[in-house]
Amino acid sequence: MPSPDSAPEPAPASRRSKITPERAQELYAAVLELLRESGYESLTMEGVASRTRCGKSTLYRQWGSKPELVVAALRGTRRMRLPNIDTGTLAGDLLAAARAIGEASGRDTPLMHALSHAALQSPELLCALREALIMPEIAAIDSMVRRGQERGEIAADLPAAEFVAAQLLGVMRARPLLEGRYADAAYLTRFVEKAILPGLGLAAGTPQS
Predict the structure, then answer these.
(1) DSSP per position, 130-168
(2) Is 35 exposed, middle or buried (0-12, 13-18, 19+ CB in 10 A)?
(3) Residue range 56-64: average pLDDT?
(4) What is the DSSP string of 122-137?
(5) What is the helix (H) or strand (E) element at residue 203, kind and residue range?
(6) pLDDT tens digits, 64-96
């Protein structure tokens, strides 16, 4: 029995604070890289520990389980690529978005494929996947379309406007399944020029810088 003067055992929250934000980012990066390499089912806490030279017990104390670690990795590495795009025209914005998405497709597409099945079985994992990789880009593309409507480039009630984000992000996901190749920047640029812009009634072409 501990004496009245003995210090209480540290709470889990205190133990968790030992991992610095910088170290957490290293762990998150390793988790996502392992997911891209082998998929969700093959990911293990042992594998993450080995890749990062971190004790397995430390991972369990900090995150509790593989799903919790993956959710934390997705949320902790969330990137914001598209919100800074504003070329002054809707065509220019969409072409710039195509290039940005295409340049990252070699990293984002394998990650989405690795997590898709598991995410359908886990609402929390699905939510984290959408928050990290999907919703920020949908919101950014929708914002581009709204700016185009406000500038009068396209009609406010144009039916095709609501499907722009689904088209651009959907083809990024579909091309590897249909053709066995990533939707890179060149492919997505052509897709915007030949499929999206005509549907919006806009001329294809390179935007003015």
Answers:
(1) IIIIIHHHHHHHHHHHHHHHHTTSS-TT-GGGGGHHHHH
(2) buried
(3) 92
(4) -HHHHHHHIIIIIHHH
(5) none
(6) 989 999 999 988 887 666 768 999 999 999 999
Tokens standing for residue 129: 């996947």
Task: Assess contact for 153 and 197: CB atoms under 8 A.
Answer: no
> What are 141-150's pLDDT values in tens digits?
999 999 999 9
pLDDT > 90? residue 183: yes
In the structure encoding, which two tokens stand for residue 106, read together? Answer: 């070699």
Average pLDDT, stretch 128-143? 88
C-alpha gyration radius of the chain: 22
Residue 150 burial (10 A CB sphere; 0-12, 13-18, 19+): exposed
- Which residues have CB under 8 Å from 64's CB, separation 6+? none
Instruction: Answer yes or no: are the C-beta atoms of 74 and 131 closer than 8 Å.
Output: yes
Please classify residue 29 by burial: count the beta carbons closer than 10 Å to its beta carbon, then call 0-12 exposed, 13-18 middle and 19+ buried: middle
d(CA 115, CA 36): 9
Residue in the structure block whose two tokens are 């889990």: 12
Q: What is the DSSP letter of 192?
A: I
Provide the whole-model pTM. 0.76
Asked if 137 and 73 touch (Cβ cutoff 8 Å), the reply is no
